[in-house]
């Protein structure tokens, strides 16, 4: 009988994780199946508890549960606790351990695919959820000059900014943290000094209610900056199309998805992830999706 790993979120039908994770499991000839576990909010507790069954090895966690899942676990990795979000659950004996591989995936993709060095740069973050938390801490550790956070819920932006500021102070870092109301996305002045915009919401994601929308218009995006959209489906999102129109550089969410997935794979299996195979399968899956 096979063992199982799954993706916990709501909704998850847009996900291509089963395609590239299963390719990696098959490469190592492991009798493990990776599945989609779409989970309504009222079922989250029972779904996570079900990971304790002997045949389950762990899970990925995606929107909207990366923060909500923390109290349901036995232990939280130091980095995940610092970020305040978990995207990977691995079972160790009878314990459920929470990890965050989003930060690793984000910065790997930024360096290797985006060819961008964040140190000393001014960065704007759109969103303040679990993914944004990982992005912010990763950028602070890489010594960005400033982070400006905007979210549709202002209090959420403020809470994230306060959380990061405490870490910056403890760690003796110099990154300046600012918060602006979401309406500021309509002003070119907001992005005047910015060299990197990172979009961390689901706006523009295929199958979402806002799948054909962009958080920004082309006339507020400075020429020559990097616009990094964590949305991976479609490969070129409405935001990235507008960024191209503004003559900005673009990076989609697929590389981050694969890199974070590779790190999760190694936590579950203890084996080296076949990253090239995972990339190829992820790209194939996106091409074949309707």
> What count of helical segments does DSSP give?
9
Order of helices and strands: EHEHEEHEEHEHEHEEEHEHH
How much of the sequence lies in strands comes to: 15-25%
Q: Would you identify the CATH architecture of the largest domain? A: 3-Layer(aba) Sandwich
- Give the mean pLDDT: 96
Helix/strand-derived category reads alpha/beta
| Rounded radius of gyration (Å) | 18 Å
CATH topology of the largest domain: Rossmann fold
- Helix percentage: 25-40%
Structure, explained:
The structure is a single chain. With 290 residues, the protein is an alpha/beta fold. It has two domains: 3-100 and 255-288, Rossmann fold; 104-252, Rossmann fold, CATH 3.40.50. 35% of the residues lie in helices and 20% in strands. It contains nine helices and twelve strands. It has helices at residues 17-27, 44-49, 78-83, 102-112, 130-141, 154-171, 238-245, 254-269, 275-288, and strands at residues 3-9, 32-38, 56-61, 75-76, 88-92, 95-99, 122-126, 146-150, 176-179, 196-199, 226-229, 249-251. Strands 2-1-3-5-6-4 form a six-stranded mixed beta sheet. A six-stranded parallel beta sheet has the order 9-8-7-10-11-12, sandwiched between helices. A hairpin with a 2-residue loop joins strand 5 and strand 6 (95-99). Helix 4 crosses helix 5 (130-141) and helix 4 (102-112) crosses helix 8 (254-269). The longest helix is centred in the middle third of the chain and has 18 residues, at 154-171. It is globular and about 60 Å long. It starts with a strand and ends with a helix. The model has no long low-confidence stretch (mean pLDDT 96).
